[in-house]
## 1
Amino acid sequence: MRARDTLLARDLEIQRLGSGPPVLLIHGSVVGANRTWRQQLALAEHWTLILPNRPGFGASPALPRGDFEAEAPLMAELIGDGAHVVGHSYGAVIALYAAALRPDVVRSLTISEPGCLRVAAGDARVDTQIAHGEMLYELAGTLEPLEFLRSFRGGVGSTHPTPGQLTGELLAGARLLMRERPPWEADPPLEELGRADFPKLVVSGGHSPVFEAVCDVVARRMDAQRAVIGGRGHTIPATGAAYNERLHAFLSVSEQGH
């Protein structure tokens, strides 16, 4: 797939499902919207789900390098005249930036385990995780995609299965990951988001002291509700009903303000 220097939101592959108030779901690294949000399709009974594939995923044209700041304007445009914004992992970092670009049309913001680790710098466990991540990316040019993906998934606590040989979507996703801008470089405008009047929810998976610390800091600085949904490590949307029930309840209450 040929990379483009610039993209517009309309260039992305986007699936829309369901009826009701719009919910924009932004996936993270390695796998696209269909894999990330497959357990959330049941929510289409109550909500209009907007499921874009980030640049380079599915049929969406690639950027020279995945970058949360470069992708945020695309997702902000997809909010349209108003939508709830939901992001997971790298997609949660993008969601933070996108919501800050258009706070007047965001109905609510839900993020799970954003990779913006540096917001909790100074915590020894977080600093160690960042150092390990930086080392992994320094070695990217010497590693095969399978080695890189296994190391990355082990570090974040993903419960997605990694086969012994990468093909298709997983191979493409691993290659995108290897050149993606590391999410710990992010410094999202959390206080600015905290001043916005839409409701916010930060979710962690209860599996990692690092992500618990990061989510605690993000929630505090953003004046957000905080939840823990365990059972699938970092892969929180894969909990299915548990995640869906919490998200549906939060969206429903948030929608009453519109």
Note: Residues 9-123+180-255 form a domain with the Rossmann fold fold (CATH 3.40.50.1820).
## 2
Amino acid sequence: MAIHSIAELVSAAQMTGKPLWQIIRDDDLLEGKYDAKESTAQMRHLWKTMCSASDHYNPTLVSKSGLSGKDGAKMQRAVEAGATIVGNFLGQVMTEALKMGENNACMRRIVAAPTAGSCGVLPAVLIPYFRCYHPTEEQIVEALYVAAGFGEVLALRASISGAEGGCQAEIGSASAMAAAALTALRGGTPEMMATACALALKSVLGLVCDPVAGLVEVPCVKRNVMGAVNAITASEMAMAGIESKIPVDEVIDTMGAVGRQLPACLRETGEGGLAASPTGRAQAKAFFEQESKANGHTIEQG
């Protein structure tokens, strides 16, 4: 049985008295692929893979295009030197988002959450929280179930694909998932988790997908930073009792509608937005010429 709405999840938690993560896990178990123990083991594996990706970040690597790499290390040095104004926790969040995005660009192992292009958002929120506030691994796993359940609704009602719905569908969905997961970790109610999801997604409606040279690097990697920080601000507001004036499922439906209205040039084709800027076009031209030479081909300029 697929979960069709966040309201359905919240209602089930209210009616049964079960925590939201368990509602989500039990619904997933109905597919019969795993029992509860196996499901938890799979989720724990994803968490350990996120942590491993962070631990094995290589600060010397640069992507094949030359557009990505080393920025995670720069951010980390700034945080460690006390040269930021955002404090240690948020500095670590920014660092982790850059690391994960660069891992993806450099063909390293990551967890697509929900996509490879948005792989930095969820771990950038959870890993620093784990290090700074010391929840148990079990609580992290439970938060990952919350993220997964909200992600399922986002995918079903709208989209998690940049090619289909723009970057709002990738970074936006990841940010909304992370906001709900963080709120769960902090002891928020199901209603607060729903609010955090809505607030995070509302803040990025209309975000276009405009990758330079069609690569998931510029501006994608740094948008992971924005998505992670956005998730934290959404959780903070929800935990403070601030509510979304638009119900979360309506926000998700709106994201889907906006995505369908975006022109093709702003949906991962690399033909509009920053990709169409003079510098973006020059970087794309240089990359394709480099690729052509490497493959023994020539490019005729029209």
Note: The first helix runs from residue 6 to 16.
## 3
Amino acid sequence: MSRAWASRFFFSVVAVMALAAVISGTACTRWGQPGAIPPSITPISSIFVNPTTGSDTSGNGTQAKPYKTFTKAVDVLAMSKSLSSSVTINLSSGDYTAANGEKFPIVVPKKVTITGTNFGHGVRSGTFVDGFGQDTIFEQLVHAPARSAYTTVEIAPGVSVILNDVYVGASKLKLPSSGAAYWSLDVLGTLSSEPANFGSGTVSKIPRASGVLVPGGTFSCASCQIQGNDFGIGAFSVTVPPSTAYPSATPSTSPSATPTGEPSLPSVTLTHSTGDSTIAAKVVDLITDGSVDVSVSGEKFGSRAQYAFEDSLQPIVSVPFRGAIDFGGGITESPGGNNFIGGRKSEILLTLLDEAISALDDTWNPSQQGADRGGTYKKMITFRSGASGKNVTILHAARGSTVIVGPAVVPTTTPSAYPSTTPSSTP
């Protein structure tokens, strides 16, 4: 992909992100207007929500009397002074829509575990958070125009969240202008998911609708399905204001939480345990600005994208070093096992200087750039600037950038310098 598309991403998809290095120290968003929260004698550990049988007025968040909306549960979480050290929001199966009372985006302001029901049976049978609203936190973070960014669920800065067994998307998406963009999930804090579906149900005809945005956050997903039109996952560094700028957010001990004035460096970790683990976008599955730490294993990259991975996002803040990218056998010890087959132009495109990718034990387009008919490399090959092909493309200007492919290195055992104290077995 050329630099022209990267510019289109920032000036169209992200609606003129005004490339500012100095980020405002204040921000606001829709925290909702929760009703009075009655004092609780016992710390809250579980909040139950049922969009069919629950009530936001007469419910109390117990399993017997659940709330009706996810929005209400988040408002209670934000306002409550009596929380246990581990809180879970339990979402029953059903459609969580604006018509049912949800107010989007749903911003998660405190550490919490959110779990859905009946995942794996599709949006009609599972927990489907379905809607969109103005992403004001992101707009202010990057000085983008108002009404230019929209999302469904947002993880606030400095907050650590677990989100499992849910579908997140917008089935009735209608953006206000050609310059506006949508992503189903915005990770400004830390999010771990296993499994989940992001971008589910999103209208495929909207070109600026994407899967997951990671501006300075930490995103870990095991066996997740991520869908988007422009991109599946977009990640880049920003300068995030302190969590005190967000009244309901609490400080996090996560490495992604950084002091004021320093870039928050994002990371993306994708693994595969059970079920589907796929990124499927129309333009690029995973795109970064070169500063992102990436570790991916067992992932299937969609066959409809132009590229599976590229590093061509124009930076928002200056970061003097490159992120570590490991698709197998690299610094994070990823076991590989990724499927790079079907990219319409190339699987990996590098455009920046000194970007190094390890991609061992993966499957590639067969009979391309030295790959055999099974799509594997029998020996290690290092692609450098000037490489151009169906599997790896590195621009001539990207001097010092490399992609290493091939079989994983088999570790060699080093004889111990000390005799064993374990007696040998004798007949």
Note: Residues 3-13 form the longest helix (11 residues).
## 4
Amino acid sequence: MSQFSIVIICRNEAGAIAKTLSSLQGLTDDIIVYDNGSTDGTQDLVRQFKVHLHEGSWEGFGKTKTKANQLAKYDWILSLDADEAADEELRQSLLQWNPGNDVIVYDILFKNFLGEKYLKYGEWGGDHHIRFFNKKFVQWDEAPVHEQLIIPANAVIKKLKGYVLHQTMKDIHDYAAKMVKYAMLNGEKYYKQGKKASWFKLRLSPGFTFFNYYILKLGFLDGHAGYICARMTAYYTFLKYARLKELNKGDENR
């Protein structure tokens, strides 16, 4: 087995974690699952696999992922979410991988799904992320939501063949709940950064978001699922700026 660790943070992912862990078996002897207070039996499912289960408090996405990375046995990290499985081509790429220069980071293609529908266009089409890196060279930022890797300027980006299969949302109910949650978190993140919710952002950004993903990025070619995704992201955009406006107004009333 190659000397890299796989690190996953999760909370209440009983519907997805088994598929993810099944796709990762045999790739490494160090799979870390860092659970943040699941109440749906996620931990019991995790214990059925050859992984290291740790439990700890939630500190926002960025800080929690950093804490989980510190538990890894190896410096090289494949960072995945609980609803992100590896396809067979990606498995083979990882099995054939050998540690190289520590300044290399690996970009991986994603296939995103809404339920069973593969989203080829719109916001989710052509998706890719850097998820394989050396933790001594690359770190997560401390953002509570929409966390990003801090990639040094001298990093060398390479591609890994294969796909991460991302079950974005299991159904519309799950989708709506996550959009509201992330919108609130992002609105609060913007507030802490000192940003303002302008008239343009609050009233026009949601419509432009829908037009961008549904028309310009061809989301309509994904059929009903493409329409749902574009509408949900437009709603998310409205909510995050509405929340930011609310927080800004609270300051004005003090």
Note: The first helix runs from residue 17 to 24.
